Amino acid sequence: MKGDELLQEIELNVVQGRRNSSDEGLDEDLSGTPGVTELVEDALNRGIGAKGILVDAISSGMTEVGERYEKGMYFLPDMLAAAETVEAAMEILEPYLLKAGIESRGKIVLATVKGDLHDIGKNIVGLMLKGTGYSVIDLGNNVDPDDIVSAVVENEANMLGLSALLTTTMHQMSETIEAFSGVGFRDKVKVMVGGAPISSEFAEEIGADGYGKDAFEALKLADDFTDI
Ligand code: B1M
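Above: inputs. Below: predicted complex with CO-5-methoxybenzimidazolylcobamide.
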């Protein structure tokens, strides 16, 4: 297989949500053929650069997944399967990317707000951002506003992403934004919010800079925030 064919094969397997040869694939049974992790190793062994693999195969694969999701061809489990292949590929690629000194597209602190344990959506957002070259500092779930603000300041992040799934915890987003007032870093960080009960009206009301309906909107917002 030539180098460009290998990249196409990686892209196809991201779209199919196949981590390795024992995975079947979302559209058809491809088990027995190499999955994303094997193909990425193969590409690196052949001297294909980690950045090329990330941009020309992994990111383009996730873009295709996003288009399928928006058209109603893919559903959440499909998106999750594809996101997990990206996570597995990123584990292999990360040391090569760091060694190559590839600049991060931006640094984002992510957290599910205090009192809220729902982190699946936030994790998908994190994987998508990581897979497209952002540095992601994931604080987990049930995170106190002061801890979130401290992490943003200490890491000099240019973005903060907050997730909430409960109507009883969404107000913690506003508490978190207010917690910046004591440290004076709010003008250096763009805040995006998301989660099932959140809306663009709510985001505006609490003084956030943007609302992402889903992981793909979160990615678009991050690109807008960093002028990409
Ligand atoms: Co709970 N839960 N849950 N739950 N749970 C909901 C949210 C609920 C709607 C179910 C229901 O009653 N119909 C309901 C909330 C009702 C409300 O607030 N009005 C509910 C409840 C009540 C509860 C408990 C209180 C139940 C109880 O104990 N009595 C309890 C609360 C625990 C707590 O948080 N303190 C609870 C617990 C749990 C589990 C722990 C069992 C589990 C969470 C496991 C986990 O996350 N690790 C759970 C689950 C799985 C759900 C449902 C079934 C699924 C949520 C999910 O993962 N969706 C949910 C019902 C439902 O949604 N149908 C429900 C998939 C995920 C990919 O979507 O998170 O929306 P989502 O993320 C999307 C977008 O929203 C967006 O992008 C993602 C990908 O497209 N997005 C962002 C999310 N964050 C973003 C951030 C961004 C941008 C976009 O920028 C930063």
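The beta strands are 107-112, 135-138, 159-163, 190-194, 210-212.
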